[in-house]
Amino acid sequence: MKWVLLFLAAFTAQVAAQSFPSKPLKLVVGYPPGGSGDFLTRLAADEMAKDLGQPVIVENKPGAGGNIAHEFVARSGADGYTILNATHMAINRALYRNLTYDPDKDFAAIGRIATGPTVICVQPGAPFKDLREMIAYAKANPGNLFHASAGYGSAPHLASVLFESVAGIKFTHVQFKGGGPATQSLIAGDTQVNFATAPTVMGFVRANRLKALAVSSRHASPAIPGIPGAEEAGLPGYDFTFWFGLFAPAGTPAAAIQRVHAALNKGLARPEVRDKIALQGMDATASASPAAFDAEVKKETPYWEKLVRESGAKVE
Fold first, then answer.
1. Which of 57, 58, 73, 116 sits CB 3.0–4.6 Å from 84 for a disulfide?
2. Taking the domain 117-233, which CATH number applies?
3. 3-state DSSP call for residue 205?
């Protein structure tokens, strides 16, 4: 009798895997429209829907540095129909005192979407013309440069605190719920500097409404031509890039994870999709497999925890 039950369980799992997906999927992101997280989420959703044969509906759940979205997905059914697009969640574990989810135990890795640097932007009329002069200005006027942050624990926030550490300066941070609102504050003149994801600011840079001093990677990015890397711009030793990737609730069937991963990678392999990502200042960086992505996430955990710890950033 026992072997019959095992056979039925295996048969049921196989049938479920073969029929997945049989209904629309939900792709959740913890940031509002207007930033790189939203752009990549919508692009991934569109591409995966083509291969999966089901709609992939994007749901923005901004707030608390992505924690609202993370908790929502962690508590969702582990059936492959609710997926999260996020950066490395070790950042939030180091940043927030009490998380309602466990980044290690509550999620299963699916695959990376894209990687890129942030762009260091100021107003065209700023009292400094390049990165060296901005650092000198900040040292001469401590606390007088207001930094528009995309929120505690976001890639732009961490890029800025690492910059402070390497450059030996201190910004006054003003937190916003996402890169879009932060950039609007810079354009309005309410803040003076913005470390932003490329999709958020490059349109304004091209329209001369913002001035890009450098990218946050050590060297210039081919995806963002005409903007120097940090070393060339005058800050050797500064190097920051970030990524976005997909995760499912822990316990999601391996077959469903593999199916979503395959659909994602099929989209990322298309030249026109890679070009769209490059136009946004990022590079498509598909993972070889869910297991490979999981190994990459685990390997990077100490780096992100150390960066947050050394930044001194904490959210009660």
1. 73
2. 3.40.190.10
3. helix
Query: How far is C-alpha 295 from the geometric centre of its chain's CA atoms?
Result: 18
Alpha carbon distance 136, 133 (integer Å):
5
Q: What is the pTM of this model?
A: 0.81
Measured CA distances, 108 to 39, 65, 142, 249, 267 (Å): 22, 20, 43, 6, 21
Strand partners, 27: 58, 83
d(CA 60, CA 41): 9
Confirm whether 22-116+242-311 and 117-233 share one CATH topology: yes
Is residue 172 very low, low, confident or very high in pLDDT (cuts 50, 70, 90)? very high
Q: What is the pLDDT of residues 70-85, one digit of tens each?
A: 999 999 999 999 999 9
Please name the fold of domain 22-116+242-311.
D-Maltodextrin-Binding Protein; domain 2 (3.40.190)
Give CA 63 to chain center in angstroms.
Answer: 14
DSSP state of 83: E
Listed by start position, the domains of the chain span 22-116+242-311, 117-233
Provide CB contacts within 8 A for 159, sequence distance 6+.
117, 118, 195, 216, 240, 242
